[in-house]
Amino acid sequence: MLESHYGAMLNAAPASAPGPRPEEGQTNANPGQNPAQNPVQDPSKSLPHSSSSSSNSNGNGSRRPFSCFRALPSSGNSQVVGRKGSAPQYGALVRDEDCLLSFLAKRHIERIEALIYERQPWRIRERMKTASVALVLCLNIGVDPPDVVKIQPCSRLECWIDPSSVSPPKAMELIGSNLQMQYERWQPRARYKKCHDPTVDDVKKLCTSLRRNAKGERILFHYNGHGVPKPTANGEIWVFNKTFTQYIPLSIFELITWMSAPSIYVYDCSNAGIIINSFQPYAEQHEHDLEKQLAAAAQKQRAAGAQQMAPGGPSATGQNAVQLPNQMVSYKNCIHLAACAANEILPMNAQLPADLFTSCLTTPINIALKWYAMQEKLGMVPPIQSDLIDKIPGKVNDRRTMMGELNWIFTAITDTIAWNTLPRELFQRLFRQDLLVASLFRNFLLAERILRSHDCTPVSLPALPPCFRHPMWKAWDLVVDLALQQLPEILDHNAPYRQLPFFEHQLTAFQVWLDSESESRTPPEQLPIVLQVLLSQVHRLRALELLARFLDLGPWAVNLALGVGIFPYVLKLLQSSTRELRPVLVFIWAKILAVDPSCQVDLVKEYKYFLSVLQDGFVSKEYRTLSAFVLASIVHNFLLGQTSALQGPLLSICLEQLNDGSWLLRQWLAICLGMLWQNFEKARWSGARDLAHEKLYVLLRDAIPEVRAAAVFALGTFISSVTDRSEEQANNIDRIVAITLLETVGEDMSPLVRMELAAALQWMVLLFESQFVAVYQAEHMRGHGHGSASSFVMCGDARDPLGLVSSTHSLERHVSMRRGVSSSSISNMGGGASNSSAGSGGGGSSSSGSSAGRSKSGSGPSSGAGGAGSGSSTKTIPFQSIFTKLWLGICNLAQDPFPRVAAIAQEIVNHVRDTAECPVMAAKEATMATASEKCSSLSVSLPPSPNTRVNYLSGAGGGGAGGGGGGGAAGGVAGESPPVGVTATVGASLWAQKLRLSGVAAGGVSQIQRKLRTSSINDETDSAPPAYPRAGWVPGTGPGSGLGLPSGPRESTHSARSSGSESNQYLEPGQSLTPIVRTDFIPWAISYFTRPGKERYCSAGGTAEEGRQRFHVDRNSVELRRRRCRYMRNDFVRRQARWHAQEQSDRFGYDVCVWNRKTQFTPSIVKLLPYEPQFAVAYREKVLVYDFQLNSVRTYGADAVSPSMVFARVSSMEFINAQDEALQLVAHDDGVVRVWQSSSSGAAPSASSSSSTGSSASDDPADKARLVTAWNALTPANHQQQPNFRQRLQAYRGSIGKAASSDASAASLASGSIVTAWQQSSQHLVIGGGGCRYLRLWDVERELRLNDIPLDRGDTSVRVLAPYLPNMRCDVILAGCDDGSVRLYDKRCAPQDSRIGMYRWHSAPILHTSLRANETVLVCGCTDGRISVVDIRAFMDKGLLLHQWDAGGDVTAIASHQIADTVACGNASKISIHSMDGRVQKVLRTNEGFIGPKTGHPTCLSFHPYKVQLAVGFVDNTVAIYSPTPVL
């Protein structure tokens, strides 16, 4: 049988990927099909019945045929398999590769915070324009300068004109006109002034007039000194006197003074570099002096400001205000370009123009072609004459012609050379700040190449690194060669011009770079070329797709793209109507906004482009998600963006698509809505008219935690968007929203959702501060007056999470309120102050959220869940039941098992406490009792709300998100309108302001008390502004401030303003509240789009994995290879266990103790990991994992999180991801489940150094475990009945010392213990016990409660759950109960129909139950020592009893091996090993000692899932392993 079993497991074909599981409340017999297509039927009808004619009672008196496993409906998650000749088997062993891993989502393996990366500045801080150009030509045609000896033949051309061809005056005029035209190609709108053979006065007049007209813009000074001597060593250039008889020196310092700054200088003369050498030290000294003057002026200004702030000081008038020095000008923006270095003369080659430097700067294409044609080494075939180059057709600005395309390519190449050579800041300054400067520097690179070939070195300031040997010049030579080859045919035969393949080749090179995927690669040099390709319609789509792939590499790639100048190009493309470009443009803009949110300002006018993509149903979900993210970024904290988007149909489009199939789209639609109405009241009311808040309620139960958190965020901003609380309609809606949030996600499994819930509820505290203060103070007074345990509400001690809320709160006062006749008023809130929890009041389950239904306005009296009528117009409701319920919810969050959630909620509790403890509120506290006594009844008249059809509120009996209590037993009558909490106080900050304005000291407290006693306690409004000015109050300075955790950030750019009005005190429109706490959910969600593609979920746009969060598989990753190695190890362990089972049969030598250790306390649970050489033991509140191979031990407990935290006793533990790297799931007596990960584990990227939602920082010690998640999985019934669970914990700890008695084991397995069963293949966690009369099923992947399975009848509760083998796929749950019954449930069925079998072979409580692996044989044992082996296929209530025997009395522990035929029983005197037929195989006596001294009786037993190993925990604080083979 074992052979057939393992043959079926190890040789089974790979199972198909499981389909989506049914949502909460749905049933689906086949998870891969639609529930409507495959309805849940009676399991007995699925397959033919066996020959037996017996029937089974279903607990309701009716009897139905029952055949367990062969009759179960098969599904994608459970298939019936069997082999010829073997016993019928159920389920299937899923291969390790096909078994899903848990807790590997981003929210589990990293901190919930913004992605940290270096943001590089890319915007040009000050765009500049060269507005004026001075052209100074000192040629003196016909007269050569005395210090230059020209060769013959010599270069003569000036601006491509031979001066000797016409008269000197005419030549001078033509040269000046040509030079102006050449500059106008690059800057046509500049103001040009020519000055021919000038004097010093002419230059001065020219420069001063240009500066006067240009103001702060740049001026270009072009100097041609070919007719004058070389500049002097002092940096002087030469001009003429009026009669042209002398050369007059002009100091460069005088010229700079006239030109001022910013300016650019071009020197085309020999020895030009000496000018720059003279200017540079002068400029540096000038900047140093300027900094000194600025520092002195700033110091004087600070002194003057301090004098004005002093009492009696002079006022800040214009007479004594210190002015910064403006007489000095900074020369940082002065740019110099010189034709050659110092002591160099210009080339005189007759084939080149005399003004070669000017030709390179102004006509680069012509001179580049001529220079290329004259290079003999290049070997042009056929040779091109120089005169043909002058006839090249086309214009520079027409890219379809040869001249235009050559200029286009030249621009791309020179940009690429500069970008790959220059520092980023210098590149931005020279090539992106000014169009004319950028053109001159591009051409300067060409001038460097050409002039260096003639032994000249052009010089610039700022200096550029050498670029004349850059590899891209080879590409330019190829382009020129290909272009010149076409030139003869174009000129002689009018042949059409063929476009050059340059850009296509460069895109291919860029694609090769992207495909390389090397971690050490340098940035691609083709990025500026890709920028230029965007101008081409032919290659635009390909260029955008490659650019999108590049941006997807991470924030560094986005910074590079923005630095090279991509922004204006892609912004302009948004005006294109081409549909093919929409997806890629949306992707690019999403990447840009994720890295630099400031781009939202530039996209406000283009928001309709992204709105059309979001609305287009033909666009894939991935790009619609990106559009939603872009739109959310546009409206994020940007009023202009919110106003523009609201005018468009953004609100309605988002609401229409909230139920889309893509989880990422749903998440960002919710975030977009939240950002749209954040601090924007107009959008909030538009959403209220469209019932946006009700439509968001659906997302609170979404399958993906990130979507639920986004919905909570959106509803939180919905509450905070209205600061004017004078109208009750807003208050009513917000109370409904807050109550719905608390009841739906108050007990959500995901800490991410609970953190956002705490952050959302803080707005209710801020907006209705006085109501919460009243609740706090009333509880404080009641707690001190009666000494009740409910005074924990004031403490808010998050360090002790076990002091939870009692179900009966002391605030339930007998204060009657007259209910208005209008149907829009609030009816009975029945016990709203009680803490709703599952299982309270007698079992059953209730769905999360509100339990009442809807009724139309004016439809007559409606009844609540409890059946209370609404016949009269008056009802009694608890005082401030809504705010009490919210306050209890916040206090529960402050006791959350996840530290970060508790810290956030504790900040809110501290805020209310500090508010109540301020002097004004202390005075008010003294009058609370008197005021409440006088307030016998309050009238509540609420205006109707026609646009707000809200769900009715449930009573206290209605379960919350995890509610499974008495349904709505305590619920009251619900009306059409939301509930209204009636205020008993007036806004406290009103009196705080009066105290501050009147300067009342301590002696004026009595006066304040009199005012408080006469305050309008019957005010109709129940809202109030902040009860004290938060800007001046230091949180935590009052009494009891040391009870909370460290405070979170409270700073904000906006602050609440106190008004002087006594009747209405609200924030002015446009002002926002200062939050008490902040979460990083939104920055963390935004960082999803900044990640490289391989670090994002592959389900973002796909349909195959829709609804799941899976990463892209890197087949070459180290982690994948390690995982495959572990899977091979697992297969070996299974095969070896099968071999041992076959060879040794029932001759197992369990009498050999191969390992033992002493523990600090009596162990309650022992378990062996299935594949790792590790052993886990639990005692008290800790779990220890021993590693045999590393000889180490790791502790999982409160010390790993915070030494001050207190955990309850460990009652169960499981191993998650056992086939890979196991996580420890630990369940505690208080219903809290925690999942731990070893800090040395590497199951996911950065998992060892980061913490999910900030549970522990990355700088934790290496030996500290990491808390992955924690939640309240079950609320034990005994917990619900006790007002203070900490007392029960202390009582338990007091009894620990008596554990030496035989009752220690029984105490550890009492009915109050929580039991669990983990199934890896379906990622389901079954939890029960704790006195609860139901089983709860959790979907760990979705972090959702699937359903509560009732135990049908009786007062019994689950005592043990049958474990699942690792990777075993099974849809049944086997539970042993206190009444001796063993019950079988099918989790695929509806909860009320899920029980498919119940076996009563025992009368004592069940101590152990288990299903044989892949068989239909049940092994169970009770505390009386009776063990039964049952075939559960038979048609009888008891099944077919195969074997039954009595193992002796006083049995403390029972365990059975799911593969080997072995059952172990332990009592006070021995551990007996039995076979499946009851024969005793081995007896291990505790009073004789095995390897030495005598040992105590066993408290817990556990077999290895596969190997022949037995783990035992003894009452004398000892754990041991018995096996015939070593543990290693």
Can you walk me through this structure?
The protein has 1528 residues and is α+β, with helices and mostly antiparallel strands. The protein has 43 helices and 42 strands. It has a 6-stranded mixed sheet, sandwiched between helices. β30 (1382-1386) and β31 form a beta hairpin. α10 (402-421) packs antiparallel against α15 (527-533), α16 (540-551) runs parallel beside α19 and α30 crosses α31. The chain starts with a helix and ends in a 6-residue tail after the last strand. The relative contact order is 0.08.
Summarize the structure.
Helices cover 33% and strands 14% of the residues. The protein has 1528 residues and is of the alpha+beta class.
What attributes does this structure have?
single chain, 1528 residues, alpha+beta, 6-stranded mixed beta sheet, 4-stranded antiparallel beta sheet, elongated, disordered N terminus
How would the blueprint of this fold be written?
Layout: H1 2-10, E1 56-57, E2 63-64, E3 92-93, H2 106-109, E4 130-137, H3 168-184, E5 191-196, H4 200-214, E6 218-224, E7 236-240, E8 247-251, H5 252-259, E9 263-268, H6 273-309, E10 334-338, H7 356-362, H8 364-373, H9 386-389, H10 402-421, H11 424-431, H12 435-452, E11 459-461, H13 472-493, H14 502-516, H15 527-533, H16 540-551, H17 555-564, H18 567-573, H19 582-595, H20 600-603, H21 607-615, H22 621-635, H23 639-647, H24 650-656, H25 663-676, H26 681-689, H27 692-697, H28 705-720, H29 728-745, H30 751-767, H31 769-786, H32 792-795, E12 818-819, H33 881-894, H34 899-916, H35 919-925, H36 928-934, E13 939-940, H37 988-998, H38 1005-1013, H39 1081-1086, H40 1118-1144, E14 1153-1158, E15 1165-1168, E16 1174-1179, E17 1182-1187, E18 1192-1196, E19 1210-1216, E20 1223-1228, E21 1232-1237, E22 1266-1272, H41 1277-1281, H42 1285-1294, H43 1303-1308, E23 1314-1319, E24 1324-1329, E25 1334-1339, E26 1344-1350, E27 1358-1361, E28 1368-1369, E29 1372-1377, E30 1382-1386, E31 1395-1399, E32 1406-1411, E33 1417-1422, E34 1426-1431, E35 1440-1446, E36 1451-1456, E37 1463-1467, ...
Parallel strand pairs: 4-5, 4-6, 6-9, 9-10, 12-13
Antiparallel strand pairs: 1-2, 3-28, 7-8, 10-11, 14-42, 15-16, 16-17, 17-18, 19-20, 20-21, 21-22, 23-24, 24-25, 25-26, 27-29, 29-30, 30-31, 32-33, 33-34, 34-35, 36-37, 37-38, 38-39, 40-41, 41-42
Helix pairs in contact: 1-40, 7-8, 7-12, 10-12, 10-13, 10-15, 14-15, 14-16, 15-16, 16-19, 19-22, 21-22, 22-25, 25-28, 28-29, 28-30, 29-30, 29-33, 30-31, 30-34, 31-34, 33-34, 35-38
